[in-house]
Amino acid sequence: MKRETAVVVIPTFNEVGQTEKMIDHLMAKTFPEIKNWECKLLYVDGNSPDGTADLIRKKQKEYENLDLLVEKNKEGIGAAYVKGFRRAMKKHKADLLIEFDSDFQHPPETIPVMLAEIDKGADYVLGSRKIEGGSNPEGWGFKRVFFSEVGGIVARFIMFFPFKSFFQITDPTTGLKASRVKGFVDTMDMDDLYSKKFAYKLEFLYKMVKLGAKIKEIPLKFGLRTAGESKIAPDTAKDIFKIAVLLRWHDPFTRKFLKFGTVGFVGYLVNASTLWFFASFIGLAEWLSWALSTELAIISNFTWNNFWTFKEDQFKEVSKVLGKFLQFNATSAGALLIQTVAGTVLTGIFGSQYRQLLLPFVILFLVLPYNWFMYNKVIWKKK
Ligand SMILES: Nc1nc2c(ncn2[C@@H]2O[C@H](COP(=O)(O)OP(=O)(O)O)[C@@H](O)[C@H]2O)c(=O)[nH]1
Ligand SMILES: [Mg+2]
User: What is the pTM of this model?
Assistant: First the structure.
C-alpha cells in the first residue's frame, strides 16, 4: 500500500542559528524512524535578512524531501502557515500537516508520537503543556507563565464554554499540531482568517472543532529557545483575546442561543407587565389575568422566534403558521407544567422565603433546556 504523506511545516524569520541543526536532526534521526509515513519538510521563510533561506537552499542539495517557500514579505506567523499549508497540499499532496517551530521548543521526538495517534484514528493531534507529562520551560519567568496560563483558560472559556471542547482542549494556544487534510484542512476556509499573527492558532483550532475533527492531546515539554530571538509580539495577549471573542461572536449556534435567550426575556417582560395591567390596572379576575398574560407571552415568543431566532427554518404560509402556533402552545403548556410542579415542590422544600430565588433556577435549569430542545427538535426542526 502507498504510504501517506506527512509534511512538517516550519515558518522562519531570522533563524539561521539553528536551522541547519534542525534540518539534519529531522532528516537523519526523526524521519528515518518513521516507517509508515512518507515525511517531507517545508520551510516558509519570511525573507529573513540573516540568510536563513540561503542556508536552506544549500541543504536542499543534500535532502530531496526538503522544500522551501520564500515569502516576498513577512506577514506574520499565521499567514506563513497558511501559505505553507496550501503549498504542502498542492505540490506535495499532503495527507497530514504538522505545525512545527524552528527553534527546538517543539521536541522532534513528538513527531512520531503524533503520527501514531493519527494512525489510531485521530484527525487532529495537539501538543499540550497542561496535561500529565507536558510542561512549560523552567526558565520562563512569572509573567510569561501567568500570561500563558490565564490566556489559555480565558481563550478556552470564550471559545468553547460550556461545550465538550472546553473540557477536552487543555492548551488552546499550543503551536504543535498535526492536522488531517482530507475532510478537514482541505475543506477549511483559510482566506478570511481574522489574524495573520499568533492567534491564527485559535482559528485553526476552532475550525477543526467545528468540522468535527477527532481530537487527541499528547504531552508537550515545551523547551527553551536554543538560539535566536523570540518573535512573540508584545500585543499577542490582545490578539488572542480579540480573536477568541470574534470567533465566538460569529458562531451560528451561539447567535441562535443568544436570540433564544433574548426572546425568552422579552416574553418574561410581556408576561409580567400584562399581568400587572390585567390584574391591577383593569381589575380582571386573577385566573383570567394569568391566562391572558401568559398567552400574550407565548404569542410574543412564537412570533420573535419564528421571524428571528429560527429564521432559516421559519414558516411563512398562514395555514402552517397557525398549525405550528397551536403546537407551540402545547409545548409551552409543557413548560408551564414543569415550572409549576418544580416551583411548588422546591418552594415546599426550601420555604416560601426562597420563592423568588428559586424561580430563575427553575427557568435556567429546567424550562430553558426544555424549550431549547422542543424548539430545535419539534417546532423549528431542520428540514
Ligand atoms: N515566515 C515567518 N515566520 C515567522 C514569523 N513570525 C515568527 N516566525 C517563526 O515562527 C516560529 C515561531 O515563532 P514565535 O511563535 O514568534 O515564537 P518564538 O519561538 O518565541 O519566537 C519561529 O520559527 C519564527 O521564526 C513571520 O512573520 N513569518
Ligand atoms: Mg519558538
Answer: 0.88
Name the closest ligand to CA 15.
1
Pocket test for ligand 1, best of 26, 77, 140 (most atoms within 8 A of CB): 77
Q: Residue 46: CB within 6 Å of ligand 1? A: yes
* Coarse DSSP helix, strand, coil percentages of the chain, rounded to the nearest 5 percent: 60, 10, 30
CA of 77 to the centre of ligand 1 (A): 6
Q: Whose CA is nearest to atom 19 of ligand 1?
A: 230
What's the 104 CA to ligand 2 centre distance in angstroms?
Answer: 7
pLDDT tens track for 308-338: 999 989 999 999 999 999 999 999 999 989 9
- Give the C-alpha separation, 5 to 196, whole Å: 26
Rounded Cα–Cα distance for residues 69 and 303 (Å): 55
Contact 310, 375 (CB under 8 A): yes
Q: Beta 177-180 vs 215-219: how paired, if at all?
A: unpaired
Q: Which residue puts its alpha carbon closest to atom 16 of ligand 1?
A: 231
Q: What is the pLDDT of residue 143?
A: 85
298, burial (CB in 10 Å: exposed 0-12, middle 13-18, buried 19+): buried
- Write the CB contacts of 155 (distance below 8 Å, at least 6 apart in sequence): 172, 173, 202, 240, 241, 244
Nearest CA to ligand 1 atom 7: 77
Residue 25 burial class via C-beta count within 10 angstroms: exposed 0-12, middle 13-18, buried 19 and up: middle
Q: Which helix (H) or strand (E) holds 96?
A: strand 96-99
Q: Are 371 and 261 in contact (CB under 8 A)?
A: no
273-297 per-position pLDDT tens digit: 999 999 999 999 999 998 899 999 9
Q: Which residues contact 247 (CB under 8 A, 6 or more apart)?
A: 158, 159, 194, 202, 203, 206
Question: b/e for 64-99, b at 16 or more Cβ within 10 A?
Answer: ebbbbbbbeebebbbbbbbbbbebbbeebebbbbbb
CATH class of 4-250: alpha beta
